[in-house]
Amino acid sequence: MRFTEFGLHPDLLEGIDASGYENATPVQEQVIPPILEGRDIIASAQTGTGKTAAFLLPMIHKMLEHKSEGLTRAIIIVPTRELAIQISQHLEGLSYFTNISSIAIYGGNDGQNFVTEKKALQSGADIIVCTPGRMIAHINMNYVNMSGLQFLVLDEADRMLDMGFQDDINRITQAMPANRQSLLFSATMPQKIRQLARNILTNPVEVNIAISKPPEKIVQRAYVVYETQKIPLVKSILQTTPFKSALIFCGRKNEVKQLTRTLKMAKFDASEMHSDLEQAHREEVINGFTSGRIPILVATDILSRGIDIDTIDLVINYDVPHDGEDYVHRIGRTARAEADGMAVTIISEKEQNKFAAIEELIGKEVEKTPVPEELGAVPPYQPRARRSGGGRKFHHGGNKRH
Q1: Which residue in 6, 242, 250, 266 has the fewest CB atoms around it within 10 Å?
Q2: Predicted model pTM
Q3: Which fold would CATH assign to domain 218-371?
Q4: Which of 73, 81, 26 is nearest to 53 (CA)?
């Protein structure tokens, strides 16, 4: 299902497109419609299934449809500062072409940040992403006005309870208006989560997402490189790997166009596929790829689902997919009909944490293959070894085009 089919606000669709999304994951297909209808949600979904966008997109849409100035309208509670930063950055990307404002607030930093948070809270940031303890501190100081609150999200609720945040969550929810819409996401559903859901949700829609796993017969490999080494590495892989049909996935249309142009200049027989192409052109490209006339196809995730070509024996992820579901769908384009296939993922420094999360989701550590010597030195693979910077800023969409 494409995001254009949900009836989302045009400014939000622009942010979705700029973020490189085209097709919804299973959790998004099941969660977005009932949230748009105003229902409470309890969802069993792990990190890497696309659940963050599943709650952000309908919330942003409803805020754009019914504007309100100077009041906080959504609070997203998460267990750790790292997750708060991650969701905040995701939110900034999706809301880039809107006037939705947001801030991530979390502990472990100096008083200057507390002052910045206070100002954002008092001015009514539309969406607050927070850790429980830090939010309690602001509530105790009367810095949070919840009178206009429409949405509460508890993300990784089981982890928050395991970390001892039950009382903090109760205090925060007690300060909220009763007529809000509440969304609870948890990787597991033990009895304590069920009890929490009974306390804060009203007649919720229950969603349970089974995690997809890639077929065992797919040979999975990964290369860790600097961003500038990606194109030379793709050329090297295509030159040294035997294949009949190679499908190269890029997250953004401009990457598809640039990579295709570069490959053609290097005398590779490559074509491109993305949403800017007319339908007739798309069909011509697909027919050429299916017949073997086009041996290399560079595409966005428009082709990660719904294409069934038995001859694809090499899939290259030019960048790390957004989440585990996208990864499974991408590499699942190869090794079809009992054939063998190889899936290669190219990981830049900034993508290491994202790929580690995918490995955790699929329950497998993907082999890291040494790059050709002529590419030079590469970064070490150290996911989660460094903490994300930034993220703690009062973000105002404010980039809407008129």
Answers
A1: 242
A2: 0.64
A3: Rossmann fold (3.40.50)
A4: 26
